[in-house]
């Protein structure tokens, strides 16, 4: 007999999910927008998506399912020492160029390490093999396994330590990082390789929760990845660097070429076509059904099988999606919260209600606060949430919000419109619709702006956490 409680929906974060339930990621990965195909078959190398849209899941899926001909390396930028990185290049050049050079170094060394570790990849001559091994061993680079450690090693050694016997001149102390980089570049492109190497860089998301976002370094990394990908292609080396990046961070990058990069080089996770109302046919629904079928292959539709047909008089799927920002993480966590409250094989209206309260309090509210922390001082966030809660209803006006902000000592120095913009960009609030039904949220229409209206609506997912009646 089928039982909702037995379905495994997975973990909040794909890296943990991959460690705990690798089969779930391998067999329960929904090919949204065929992004994994696009990564493998096109030149696109920037993968954009909101928080929880499946960026890490893509990287883990590629790792778990790569065939014998593909090698996937997924270094993370979590806790990456950006400040130190900016200092490893000496001289007076523009900071962005220094960062670009530093990234060239990091990425090339990582690619070289991967090529050396692959027994099938061979430098064209024996002499090259000897030079490569000598270079990596003498400089200590062979033992470094994270990008962070590579930065630390580079900054602690003088360039001289890397300069081995490859320079033709005697005065090796003067050798610049530039020269060493070109040396590594030659070593890399000298390899003959039949396997495909993917270097998938994740963790750019975490930067947003830290203070002082290193925008410049992220821009430099993206441009360097683009240049190196072109260089590898020209040298007929099957290596590709891929960068996973939160859409909102990408939008904020101070880069004049951003639009060009977005159009020509990026893919976007889009789980629910903009403007569409067909909840039943969305990829999100297909994804959860796929996971349900791993346990109960006979289940055609998770909601038909286990849920009441409506929630407060409306179609169940659209209603439940209204509690999410249309990301797999939100929807899966909502289903998990309901599951934790389940005491029978099917979900009752009462169970659903309890699950939605838990979801709002334990998942959605903290998630939104986390997201806001990338944009506003940490201690202002609770004060803002208290203001939203004080309205006691989902809808509010700009003037009511402005008045409350003016009166809050904890928010002095912050402007109401700036705070509203952050709330809107994080989808904590949307534009109130004239009909009073729902609202327009950023995740449904990325061109929407909070200046288009002076009436707002609080996201349904937050309401129970803020004790606002729906
Ligand atoms: N294509 C997918 N198919 C099935 N589940 C997915 C997919 N993408 C993401 N998920 C689920 O959503 C959760 C959050 O995804 P994750 O990759 O961690 O998001 P982020 O974009 O923040 O890195 C994952 O743990 C996984 O359970
Ligand atoms: Mg992630």
* Residue runs with pLDDT of under 50 for 5 or more positions: 163-174
Number of domains: 2
User: According to CATH, what is the topology of the largest domain?
Assistant: Rossmann fold
CATH architecture group name of the largest domain: 3-Layer(aba) Sandwich
Q: How far apart are the first and last residues' alpha carbons, in Å? A: 35 Å
As laid out across the biggest beta sheet, the strand order is 2-5-6-1-7
- CATH class call of the largest domain: Alpha Beta
Gyration radius from CA atoms, angstroms: 25 Å
Please tell me what the overall shape is.
globular
Small ligands present: adenosine-5'-diphosphate, magnesium ion
Helical/strand content category: alpha/beta
SSE inventory with pairings:
Blueprint lengths: L13 H7 L1 H6 L7 H7 L4 E4 L5 H11 L4 E4 L8 H4 L9 H23 L4 E2 L2 H13 L8 H10 L20 H13 L1 E2 L3 E6 L2 H4 L7 H20 L4 E8 H6 L5 H8 E3 L14 H13 L6 H5 L3 E2 L2 E2 H6 L6 H13 L8 H24 L8 H10 L4 E3 H10 L8 H10 L3 E4 L6 E2 L14 E4 L1 H4 L7
Parallel strand pairs: 1-6, 1-7, 2-5, 5-6
Antiparallel strand pairs: 3-4, 8-9, 10-13, 11-12, 11-13
Helix pairs in contact: 6-9, 6-11, 17-18
The structure holds adenosine-5'-diphosphate and magnesium ion (MG).
């Amino acid at each position: 007999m089928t039982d909702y409680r037995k379905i495994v929906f997975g973990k909040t974060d794909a890296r943990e999910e991959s460690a705990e339930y690798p089969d779930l990621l391998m067999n329960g990965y929904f090919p949204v927008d065929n992004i994994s195909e696009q990564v493998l078959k096109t030149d696109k190398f920037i993968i954009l998506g909101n928080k929880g849209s499946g960026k890490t899941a893509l990287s883990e899926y590629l790792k778990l399912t790569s065939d014998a001909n593909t090698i996937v390396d997924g270094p993370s930028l979590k806790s990456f020492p950006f400040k130190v990185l900016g200092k490893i290049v000496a001289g007076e050049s523009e900071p962005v160029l220094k960062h670009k050079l530093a990234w060239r170094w990091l990425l090339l060394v990582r690619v070289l390490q991967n090529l050396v570790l692959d027994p099938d990849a061979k430098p064209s001559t024996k002499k090259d093999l000897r030079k490569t091994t000598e270079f990596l061993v003498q400089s200590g680079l062979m033992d470094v396994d994270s990008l962070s450690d590579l930065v630390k090693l580079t900054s602690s050694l003088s360039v001289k330590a890397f300069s081995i016997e490859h320079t033709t001149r005697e005065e090796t102390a003067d050798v610049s990082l530039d020269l060493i980089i070109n040396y590594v570049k030659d070593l890399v492109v000298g390899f003959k390789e039949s396997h495909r190497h993917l270097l998938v860089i994740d963790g750019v998301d975490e930067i947003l929760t830290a203070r002082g976002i290193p925008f410049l370094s992220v821009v430099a990394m993206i441009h360097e990845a683009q240049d190196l990908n072109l260089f590898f292609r020209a040298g007929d080396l099957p290596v590709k660097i891929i960068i996973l990046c939160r859409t909102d961070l990408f939008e904020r990058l101070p880069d004049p070429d951003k639009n060009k990069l977005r159009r020509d080089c990026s893919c976007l996770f889009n789980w629910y076509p903009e403007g569409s109302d067909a909840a039943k046919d969305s990829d999100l629904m297909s994804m959860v059904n796929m996971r349900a079928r791993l346990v109960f292959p006979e289940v055609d539709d998770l909601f038909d099988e286990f849920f009441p047909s409506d929630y407060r008089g409306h179609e169940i799927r659209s209603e439940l999606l209204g509690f999410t920002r249309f990301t797999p993480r939100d929807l899966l966590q909502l289903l998990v919260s309901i599951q934790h409250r389940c005491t029978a094989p099917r979900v009752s209206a009462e169970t659903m209600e309890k699950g939605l309260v838990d979801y709002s309090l334990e998942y959605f509210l903290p998630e939104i606060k986390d997201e806001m922390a990338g944009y506003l001082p940490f201690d202002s966030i609770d004060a803002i949430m208290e203001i939203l809660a004080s309205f006691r209803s989902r809808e509010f006006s700009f003037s009511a919000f402005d008045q409350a902000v003016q009166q809050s000592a904890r928010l002095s120095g912050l402007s109401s419109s700036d705070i509203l913009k952050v709330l809107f960009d994080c989808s904590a609030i949307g534009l109130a619709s004239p009909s009073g039904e729902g609202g327009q949220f950023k995740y449904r229409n990325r061109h929407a702006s909070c200046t288009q209206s002076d009436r707002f609506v609080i996201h349904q997912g937050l309401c129970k956490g803020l004790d606002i009646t729906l």
